[in-house]
TrEMBL record:
Residues 1-21 form the signal peptide. The chain crosses the membrane at residues 626-645. One of its GO terms (molecular function) is phospholipase A2 activity. One of its GO terms (cellular component) is cytosol. Residues 51-602 form the PLA2c domain. GO terms for biological process: glycerophospholipid catabolic process. The lineage of its organism: Eukaryota, Fungi, Dikarya, Ascomycota, Pezizomycotina. It holds the Pfam family PLA2_B. This is Lysophospholipase. It catalyses: a 1-acyl-sn-glycero-3-phosphocholine + H2O = sn-glycerol 3-phosphocholine + a fatty acid + H(+). InterPro entries: Acyl_Trfase/lysoPLipase, LysoPLipase_cat_dom.
Length: 646
């Protein structure tokens, strides 16, 4: 491969740029030990041979949850009991005593609500809007447990899933030791969430931006070259993931030694003090460019990487990704490999669609020398492969003697989790073995032409669930109307519940879905997916808007929204009421009447959807229809690929 040559070109660039000496070596192993560090890779970004543990790692069947997850769930569910009592304790449920209800049923944990939260993709728009949602759900956020707010929902949840931009949010929270959003917002120059410095230019240190940028690209190239030199196939996602890390991981150089599997090793996680993070990505068959609704959906949980779909139906131990699995085992002649599951690489995988964007950055102001080099990298990697992450060696090679193509190729190609149109990471949460009762689905998708949601990811997941003899493989999902109905009935303008009546779902056990669509409460939050730069005030306005989206402006949206926390609580309790044969309290019946989709449809093509900002007092000066220069031309490649990225 000529990539080494490209790296050399970058090194050369570093030397000529500015005429200042550039550091010649990167010490990859010296990542500082700090309270936030989980940098346990053996050799920085480069995966390394290690001796295998006594029980050699294997691929296991997806027919059950891992023993790790099962054991952890017992711990976590107990933690959520007290969190739910706090949560319900803040909410007026009229004559129904939800705290006593939880107390009365806590001895049989299966009867207690099992909550999931899902944060969609959509670049920095999804990251910031999703951050506002998480901030609102987090009891640690100041004022979040006051009347009208929803603080404590995060502490009550068992699972938190993300993909693409939502996956950046997830990664930034978990890799930084389950940081609060407020904390991530208060970091200073040189640290995380400095989105005013575009990811294409890198962090600002003390020098000239052009110099910092050259140094940044030099560092990206150098670190990725290390992985390649150790014999691993690389893809553009390696560079992309490294770049993301600088913005999301609070450690020197974006923490090249931080692994995703280290989340499972942190004490607070082991003690069940936080929900389980689940990151979603899609599979792509060799030679394919279209990601269909039947493409394999993968998840990264803290212990494993794999899929419940019939195509793979297996899980690999995340810590040992990069080892040469064959037929589900590592041959005795081979050593084990660790350090492949770099946290940035995992986040980059889930958002690999941005590769193409980065490579077509001709409208932005990065130095043209760098653009040329990026273009060269693209050429080297091959046009068709610019949006994939290469998982090589393929952990599922030969596994189950599967006839699917995945099992027969030495490389596994993994792509952006939103490319199959399921831009909400619902797949891990609708697995029957996880028994989730309710999903709070925060949708920041750009489904309309002006970047608003219209239910499209729910439609995609619903349609997939109908293929019961094939890809659905035991999953069920509430009935979801078409996208026109979403707009005509305004289902995308406020929280809407789907699947309220579980007996109307005939395909299996499905959770109730609380759909929380992005909407302009206090700022026009429909920024382009490809806006890569947010000033701090813009970032914070987006986060506040996200807070307002999920709390209905702290229940002040209009005169009738003061019931919102009560109704969210009813959604949480709904499936539990079924199991315990509890009569639905009158206050909840009213809520369901009001917030549940009633099954009606209006599929007429609607007029252009252009919601106006809700709260007149808002200081926002955002543009109603976002159009950043060059966005149209940037969209062309996606349209050509038939990909509509939410
Ligand atoms: C997962 O479970 C296996 C088998 O019980 C155990 O050996 C391993 O240490 C667990 N992993 C973690 C990260 O706890
Ligand atoms: C709780 O809500 C009911 C209406 O559902 C209302 O009558 C009552 O005053 C509220 N209680 C408190 C303490 O706000
Ligand atoms: C990481 O966060 C801590 C605060 O918890 C801060 O003091 C430190 O400077 C940050 N480190 C880096 C490398 O940004
Ligand atoms: C997925 O669907 C496409 C067309 O919709 C079809 O060509 C392909 O064979 C399907 N793949 C699988 C694994 O079912
Ligand atoms: C790791 O071990 C394999 C043999 O199992 C060898 O081919 C490879 O070169 C080793 N990699 C490194 C980086 O030492
Ligand atoms: C983008 O810029 C590079 C370098 O300036 C050039 O080689 C490439 O052809 C340009 N691509 C497009 C689509 O204009
Ligand atoms: C896979 O095929 C080989 C040879 O046909 C056979 O020995 C082995 O048992 C099969 N493995 C599984 C898991 O079916
Ligand atoms: C809702 O509460 C949050 C957090 O206190 C605050 O930032 C936001 O401005 C409030 N929303 C409205 C509409 O007042
Ligand atoms: C717990 O409740 C479920 C029904 O929700 C029931 O099937 C199960 O038997 C109960 N377990 C115990 C130990 O009572
Ligand atoms: C109930 O299920 C049917 C059949 O799937 C569907 O047409 C209808 O819209 C559903 N009703 C609700 C309220 O979800
Ligand atoms: C259906 O939606 C169209 C387009 O928004 C609207 O003009 C029409 O009035 C709606 N029909 C009904 C019965 O509400
Ligand atoms: C419920 C169900 O259909 N499960 C199937 C999922 O896919 C695997 C692998 O093909 C089957 O073994 C399961 O029976």
């Amino acid at each position: 491969m000529k990539l080494a040559g490209i790296s050399t070109a970058l090194l050369t660039l570093g030397c000529i740029s500015g005429g200042v000496a550039i550091p010649t070596a990167l010490d990859l192993t010296s990542a500082e030990i700090s309270p936030r560090a989980f940098s346990n890779a053996p050799d920085g970004y480069t995966p390394a041979n290690v001796s295998c543990p006594a029980n050699r790692p294997t691929i296991r069947s997806a027919s059950s949850l891992s023993t790790n997850e099962t054991a952890w769930i017992d711990v976590r569910r107990q933690q959520t009991v007290s969190a739910m009592k706090d949560f319900f304790g803040h909410i007026n449920m009229s004559s129904f005593d939800a705290v006593s209800y939880i107390n009365n049923h806590a001895s049989n944990i299966t009867n207690i609500p099992n909550i999931g939260i899902a944060v969609s993709g959509g670049g920095y728009r999804a990251l910031t809007n999703g951050a506002g949602a998480i901030k609102a759900f987090d009891s640690r956020t100041e004022h979040s447990t006051q009347t009208g707010h929803l603080g404590g929902l995060l502490q009550s949840a068992t699972y938190l899933s993300g993909l693409s931009g939502g996956g950046w949010l997830l990664g930034s929270i978990y890799i930084n030791n389950f940081s609060t959003i407020s904390n991530l917002q208060t970091y200073k120059e040189g640290e995380v969430w400095q989105f005013q410095n575009s990811i294409t230019k890198g962090p600002k240190t003390n020098g000239l931006q052009a110099w910092d940028t050259a140094q940044y690209y030099y560092d990206l190239a150098k670190v990725v070259a290390g992985k390649k030199d150790a014999g691993f196939n690389i893809s553009f996602t390696d560079y992309w993931g490294r770049a993301l890390s600088y913005q999301l991981i609070n450690a020197t150089d974006g923490g090249p030694s931080y692994t995703w599997s280290s989340i499972a090793l942190t004490q607070d996680f082991k003690d069940g003090k936080m929900p389980m993070p689940l990151l979603v990505a899609d599979g792509r068959n060799p030679g394919e460019t279209l990601i269909g609704s039947n493409s394999t959906v993968y998840e990264f949980n803290p212990w494993e990487f794999g899929s419940f779909d019939p195509s793979i139906y297996g899980f690999a131990p995340l810590e040992y990704l990069g080892s040469h699995f064959s037929n589900g085992e590592i041959p005795s002649s081979r050593s084990c490999v660790r350090g492949f599951d770099n946290a940035g690489f995992v986040m980059g995988t889930s958002s690999s669609l941005f590769n193409q964007f980065i490579l077509k950055l001709n409208t932005t102001d990065i130095p043209s020398t760098l653009k040329k080099i990026l273009a060269n990298i693209l050429e080297e990697l091959g046009d068709r492969n610019d949006d994939i992450a290469i998982y090589s060696p393929n952990p599922f090679y030969g596994y189950r003697n599967a006839t699917v193509e995945y099992a027969q190729t030495p490389d596994l190609n993994v792509v952006d989790g939103g490319e199959d149109k399921q831009n909400l990471p619902l797949h891990p949460l609708i697995q029957p073995t996880r028994n989730v009762d309710v999903i709070f689905a925060v949708d920041s998708s750009a489904s309309t032409s002006n970047n608003w949601p219209n239910g499209s990811p729910l439609v995609a997941t619903y349609e997939r669930s109908l293929n019961s003899s094939g890809i659905a493989n035991g999953t069920a999902f509430p009935s979801i109307p078409d996208k026109n109905t979403f707009i005509n009935l305004g289902l995308n303008t406020h929280p809407t519940f789907f699947g309220c009546n579980s007996s109307n779902i005939t395909t299996g056990h499905a959770p109730l879905v609380v759909y929380l669509p992005n909407y302009p409460y206090t700022t026009y939050s429909n920024k382009s997916t490809f806006q890569l730069k947010y000033d701090i005030s813009e970032r914070d306005d987006m986060i506040t808007n996200g807070y307002n989206v999920v709390t209905m402006a702290n229940s002040t949206r209009d005169s009738s929204s003061s019931d919102w926390p009560t109704c969210a609580a009813c959604a949480i309790l709904s499936r539990s009421f079924d199991r315990t044969n509890t009569q639905v309290p009158a206050v909840c019946s009213q809520c369901f009447e009001k917030y549940c989709w009633d099954g009606t449809r209006n599929s007429t093509t609607p007029a252009a959807y252009e919601p106006a900002i809700l709260m007149a007092s808002a200081k926002s000066a955002g543009l109603k229809n976002m159009a950043v220069p060059g966005v149209f031309s940037l969209l062309v490649p996606f349209v050509v690929l038939g990909v509509w990225f939410g």
